[in-house]
């Protein structure tokens, strides 16, 4: 790969990563402002490309969806979120094509995936749901196979893989609406957004030539991987907490932290709280669990936060001793900010700016770990991408 190509891919992946971060933040804002079902259909909003803005269109929307009255201040958020997601999809498609440009077969697989995705959306809008599902499966499988057979390793393969992830993420966005905010789907949608951001960020770092200069730093690599896995599990717990409306299960204000409902051992129901699938047709807006199950989810999230805090604090200490002081400082500061935001969410009753920032800082913490991961990655694989 020429220096010019690498520079182009680095710039494009950085742009896509920044866009994905903004989308994660805006998606959190949509979810936390209870706008997730403000457009009851997909990909349109009350049958329109944008959203109803005139009195006649609003009246038609209310008549078409009598069980979901139109709320203008929420509908625009959901539909703009979809537009932004579509824009990111185009960016990732261009990135995948650029990374696979020298391999005609892989490039063709990416294009097959894009065409099938576009036709699948059209068929879905026409009510051909089975045919649409088949096309969606092909749209995901084609770039996955292309990433597997692409020569070399590392960032170029991840570029093609990211396109498969973004297509599946679009499907999760659709299911979030059609399955009425089912918690496992909402949580998966959050994880998909974080995965997309993580893949694009790691691509930008690798195309930028970030790697370990010697074997001394590579010894930290496995420890950083463990940190990434733990953080991913904690993000999943956070998504499960939010999607089950358990963020304030322990109350707010005095007695809500570190205690729960003013008790050290409140009534909990972990079995009920962690049932992943509850059937189809239930509207999960506002939550369906009792207080004991929601308290169990909230306490599990706190325990996970404690584990992650201790491990990443120790990892930052180890990284600083190995000479990665900037990375260690970034991890430590972002970690402290995230813990502060989490406690503030509980104590102050989940204010929207704080709750949204909690999602964004989680993404920043993920980026800090991925930067450390790239910095401790042996430099040899980069030559395979040349």
List low-confidence stretches: 380-386
Give the number of helices.
14
Helix content: over 70%
Number of strands: 0
Distance between the termini: 4 Å
Radius of gyration: 22 Å
Overall average residue pLDDT: 93
Number of domains: 2
Q: Can you tell me the overall shape? A: flat
Assess the beta-strand content as a share of residues. Answer: under 5%
The main sheet comes to: none
Order of helix and strand elements from N to C terminus: HHHHHHHHHHHHHH
Assign the structural class, choosing from mainly alpha, mainly beta, alpha/beta, alpha+beta, or little secondary structure: mainly alpha
3D architecture notes:
The chain is mainly alpha-helical. It has 2 domains: 1-209, no CATH class; 214-386, no CATH class. It is built from 14 helices and no strands. Helix 1 (3-32) packs antiparallel against helix 3 (72-99) and helix 1 (3-32) runs antiparallel to helix 7. The N and C termini lie close together (4 Å). Residues 380-386 have low confidence and may be disordered.
């Amino acid at each position: 790969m020429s220096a010019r190509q690498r520079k182009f891919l680095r710039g494009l992946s950085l742009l896509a990563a920044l866009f994905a971060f903004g989308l994660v933040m805006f998606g959190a804002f949509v979810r936390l402002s209870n706008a997730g079902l403000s457009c009851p259909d997909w990909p349109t909003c009350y049958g329109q490309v944008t959203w109803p803005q005139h009195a006649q269109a609003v009246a038609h929307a209310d008549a078409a969806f009598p069980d979901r009255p139109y709320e203008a201040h929420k509908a625009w958020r959901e539909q703009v979120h979809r537009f932004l997601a579509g824009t990111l999809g185009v960016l990732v498609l261009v990135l995948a094509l650029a990374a696979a440009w020298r391999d005609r077969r892989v490039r063709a697989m990416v294009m097959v995936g894009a065409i099938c995705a576009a036709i699948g959306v059209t068929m879905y809008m026409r009510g051909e749901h089975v045919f649409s599902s088949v096309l969606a499966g092909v749209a995901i499988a084609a770039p996955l196979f292309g990433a597997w057979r692409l020569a070399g390793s590392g960032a170029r393969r991840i570029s093609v893989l990211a396109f498969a992830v973004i297509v599946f993420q679009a499907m999760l966005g659709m299911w979030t609406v059609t399955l009425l905010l089912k918690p496992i789907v909402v949580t998966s949608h959050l994880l998909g957004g974080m995965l997309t951001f993580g893949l694009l960020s790691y691509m930008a770092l690798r195309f930028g030539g970030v790697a370990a200069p010697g074997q001394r730093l590579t010894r930290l690599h496995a420890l950083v991987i463990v940190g990434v896995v733990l953080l991913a599990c904690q993000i999943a717990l956070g998504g499960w907490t939010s999607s089950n409306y358990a963020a304030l299960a322990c109350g707010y204000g005095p007695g809500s932290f570190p205690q729960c409902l003013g008790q050290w051992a409140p009534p909990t129901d972990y079995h009920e709280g962690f049932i992943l699938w509850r059937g189809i047709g239930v509207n999960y807006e506002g939550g369906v669990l009792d207080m004991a199950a929601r308290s169990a989810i909230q306490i599990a999230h706190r325990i996970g936060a404690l584990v992650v805090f201790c491990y990443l604090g120790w990892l930052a200490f180890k990284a600083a001793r190995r000479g990665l002081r900037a990375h260690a400082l970034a991890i430590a500061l972002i970690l402290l900010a995230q813990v502060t935001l989490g406690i503030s969410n509980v104590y102050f009753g989940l204010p929207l700016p704080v709750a949204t920032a909690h999602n964004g800082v989680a993404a920043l913490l993920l980026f800090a770990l991925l930067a450390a991961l790239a910095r401790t990655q042996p430099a040899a694989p980069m030559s395979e991408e040349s």
